[in-house]
Specification:
The protein has eleven helices and seven strands. By secondary structure, the protein is an alpha/beta fold. The protein has a seven-stranded mixed sheet. The longest helix is centred in the last third of the chain and has 33 residues. The termini are far apart.
Amino acid sequence: MLDSFVSIVMVVNNQANDLNSLLKKASDTIQNIVTDYEIIVIDNGSTDESLDKLKDLTSKEGLQNLQVFSLTKEVELDKAFWVGCENSLGDYVCVFDPTTDDISFLPNMIEGAVIGNDVVFAQNLKKPKFSFFYSIAFKVFNWMYKYFNNIDLAKEVPSFRILSKRVINFVMQHPQPYVAYRHLPASVGFSRLNLEYEYDSKYPYRNTLHKSILKGLRLLISSSQAPMRLVTVLTMFGAAANLLYTVYILMIAIFKSDIADGWLSLSLQQSGMFFLISIVLLVLSEYVLQMLSFSEDKTDHYVAQELTSVRLTSKERLNIEQSQEIE
C-alpha cells in the first residue's frame, strides 16, 4: 500500500440508479492502494434523485471520505471537473468520467504517478460510437489542434488522468483554468506517462455535436494564437488580391477601348473599398494579438527543480553581515 493521498474527482448527471455501485467500486478500488484518499463527486445539475442518493451516501451509514458538490445547473463537463480539482486535497488528483472510463485501471495509473510522473493519461481504445457528422467534426478539429499545437488530443490528452498537486497549482494560475487543465499538463513539459486500456462503457456519449464544436473552438483559441494569426494571413491575402485586381482593372482601361459604361469606376470603387477593409482587419487582428500577449496571465513553462552549488564564491557580494566579537 502506497503512503500517498489521492483524490478521485468524478462528475455525475442523472445517474441516481448507479450511484451506489459506482461509488462503492471506486471506494473499494482506491482504499486497497493508498493510505489516504477522498472521493469528490460533482452533481452536475441532476434533475432526478441523484442528490438524495448522495446525501444518503454521505451519512453515518454511507461511504467514508466522500465529498459532494452539487451545482445549481448543468455546466460544461470540464467546468464541473475543475470544481472538483480546485477543491481537492490529495497529493495526486484522478479525473474520472464514469460514463467512459474504467476505475479498475486506476492502480496502474497510480503506479505510474508515484515513480515520478506528474501527469498520467489513460486512453480507452474502445471509443464510444459517434454519429457520422460527429465523427467528421471530431477528426477535423483534432487535425486542426494537432497542426496548430503539435498535440493529438485524442491520443495524447484523454480525459482520464492523474495530475500531481503541483500540476493543479500550476493550472490554477491560468485565467481560465477549467479550459487550460485539459491541454496545459501536456503542452508545458511536465513529466508524463500515456497508458492504454480497453473498456466497454454502458453509457451513451453525453456530449452533443453543438456543445462539442463550441468547446473545441474555445479550447483551440485559448491554447494557441494560431487561429488569430490565420485571420491576419487571410486579410493580407485579401489586401494583396484586391491590389492585383486594381492593377488588372487599370490594364484593361489602358489596352481596351470597348469597356462597358461605368465598369471602370465601379470596379475601382469595389476593389478600393475591399482593399481598405482588408487593411483595417489586418490592423485589428494584429492589435488583438498584441493585447492578448499583454493580458494573458499565464506561462508556458514550469521550473521543475532548482539546484544551488554548495560551494559559492560570491558570498562577498551578497547582502550578508558578519557579526564581530566585541572585546
